[in-house]
Amino acid sequence: MSVRFNRKLNSIPGYTPGVPRGHSAEDVAVSDLAQLASNESPFPPLPEVIEAIAGAAASMNRYPDPDATLLRRKLAERHETEPARVAVANGSCEILLAAGEALLEPGAEIVFAWPSFSMYPQLAAMSGAREIRVPLGPGQVHDLKAMLREITAATQLVLVCNPNNPTGTYLPFAEIAAFLERVPGHVTVIVDEAYIDFQQHDDPDDTVDLLEQYPNLVLLRTFSKSCSLAGLRVGYALCSPAFRAAVDAVRQPFSVNALAQAAATEALRHGDRIQERLESVIIERIRMENGFAGLGLETAETQTNFSWISLGENGAEIEQQIVDDLAAAGVVVRPGALLGGPGRLRASYGTREEDDRFLAALSGALADRT
After folding, report:
1. Are residues 246 and 233 in the same domain?
2. Based on the structure, what is the number of domains in the chain?
3. Quick check: is 93 in a domain?
4. What would the DSSP string read from start to end of 256-306?
5. Using CA atoms, how far apart are residues 204 and 172, in angstroms rounded to an integer?
6. 116-131 pLDDT, tens per residue?
7. Which DSSP helix (H) or strand (E) runs through 146?
8. Which helix (H) or strand (E) holds 308?
9. 292-343, pLDDT tens digit by residue?
């Protein structure tokens, strides 16, 4: 008789990493591929951050601070709040999964837009809750009115990815605030702001001011994108003390390693230099969006470090062929079919050389397939 695993495993969607077919993540890391599939920063960590990591490495015989005390204090100072309102995790994904564990169960409901971050469906599948996917509205933007209509007494969790992944679209602060005013107090609203630093409409700290007014609000942030620390996995939530206690109760201890804590703490000391990097990404965003338009391709209005590119009327038919052609040319992007948008590509911005290689390879692939 074979081992019987939990039946819910059959309903949990797997996470597909941004590597080409036939390659492993290790292959990609050591190859000359232009890795534009995972929305990573094209820049290495700041030299001071690398020094902080090296300095912390000598203490790897000890467990990390389970409360990430120093990092949480520095984050609280940065956002003018108190450490009790800061939860630190092994990437913001860990907080998402912990929120599902703490809030969801069979009979509960979770509401989120679609397509959106590919991790969201895992929360319902792992908890047995009912998921409600609300289609994006015109312009590939969250339809907040439609999401409100889906909220019931059984709704426990609403997820708003802003700016949205994979579309890159952004909802202004005023719309988020108006939405929160209409959400019942029993519903936890997680606004996933992994890309908030790349948008140019609002001050990224505007939503932080809403935390006092709405104790059911959680803001997710990460060091992976703007701070070039994707390889260390450190994210955080700004939230109520009750939410922090709940997610901490269901997570493993020591989830944020000592190197990640040291790196993130040091990164917070260099906000001006990180801002300069963000500005260079935004300049590259404008250049790449113009490049796609020059190829006759439409994109969603992005406020992130990536583009959501439509391949046209027969896009769903040629999508995988285009992805394969790009990989053969040394460029890795994410096929839209894996992200809820068949007929599209999601491509992050790399170095100038990588992006030029991408545009050239995309032009050739389209000429061969259309």
Report:
1. yes
2. 2
3. yes
4. S-HHHHHHHHHHGGGHHHHHHHHHHHHHHHHHHHHHHHHTT--B----SSE
5. 11
6. 999 999 999 999 999 9
7. helix 144-149
8. strand 306-310
9. 999 999 999 999 999 999 999 999 999 999 999 999 999 999 999 999 999 9
